[in-house]
Amino acid sequence: MASIFVTGANGFIGRHLVEALVARGDQVRCLVRPIPRIDPLRLLGVEIMAADLDDAAALKSATAGVDVVFHVAGLIRVLRIDDFYRVNQQGTAAIAQACAAQPTPPRLVLVSSVAAAGPAPLGQIRIESDPPAPMSHYGRSKLAGEKEAAKFAGTVPLTIVRPGIVFGPRDTAFMKILRSIRMFRCHLSPGFSPPALSCIHIADLLELLLRAAERGCRVPVSENGHPGLGRYFAVAPEYPTYAELGRLLRPMLRRPFAPIIPVPGPLAYCVGGVNELIGRLRGKPEELCVDKIRDALVTSWACSGDAARRDLDFLPAKSLTERLQETVEWGLQHKFL
């Protein structure tokens, strides 16, 4: 039994992770934003600390005496671009600094994103040692967070996990995609040459995170000819485009004839811009924005899972098609679709 601290515990990935840790008997401490959506965590019997990532005293207290820190907290949508860097960069720096301040620094597993690495050239698959070249502010902020954490690599045992698109039960963003196909009987795909995607089901991501905490390579103080060491792409071995994803989902959603409709890049940017304006008027950021469109129109997001297979003996337990089917069935069963 280990003592674990999880940030972002009331988010999609964080809550699933906490449930998995509790199920295996770990003692879990959770950092959550001071908002009311924490009742499901209370039912799990975990220790809850409501604080923000800029609260140095709270972070120092939260990381005291724990064996592992899973830093999951981060922003994926914002009203102001600066918020990406405030949370994804500076918040990660604060977590790493809090870990480094402990007499025995805990193992730190940082949940980043393939967006931090940037897209792969057309027809190629990106590996961890490739020089990062993020395209969006979100990706740049996640890479900046990785670099902040790496500054403490001499003191804190650090492993970075970069998931692709994470989907599964309770994922509201993916459920919106499924609902759009089911309700409108079509699937909109950005651009006429949509990029190959890297995806992973939440259950497979959890398994990879647990293995990374147990035996993942550490990010070195200096790469010394080993770029990418201590970093792992968390991806399935299949790389469908957004259009192909729609074709896979159509029969699962009982919409076999839903057409795939490509959306020209300029029109996609217009839609993203309008959504941003709507978000600002409402005071709540929208999922589909200009920054998201920027990532949607690149060449490819195909990333290799070879490092995770080599070092962690990790391979998704089921195929991508099986995982998509499971997610659709969950959505139907729980009336999300």
The fold-level CATH name of the largest domain is Rossmann fold
Portion in strands:
5-15%
Q: Give the name of the CATH architecture of the largest domain.
A: 3-Layer(aba) Sandwich
Distance between the termini: 38 Å
Largest sheet, if any? 7 strands, parallel
Total number of domains: 2
At a glance:
This protein has 337 residues and is α/β, with parallel strands linked by helices.
Describe this entry's structure for a reader.
The protein is an alpha/beta fold and 337 residues long. The chain folds into two domains: 3-169 and 198-236 and 302-317, 3-Layer(aba) Sandwich (Rossmann fold), CATH 3.40.50.720; 172-195 and 239-296, no CATH class. 43% of the residues lie in helices and 14% in strands. It is built from 13 helices and eleven strands. β2, α2 (39-43) and β3 (47-50) form a beta-alpha-beta unit. It is globular and about 60 Å long. The two termini are 38 Å apart. The model has no long low-confidence stretch (mean pLDDT 94).
List keywords for this structure.
single chain; alpha/beta; 2 domains; Rossmann fold; seven-stranded parallel sheet; 337 residues; two-stranded parallel ribbon
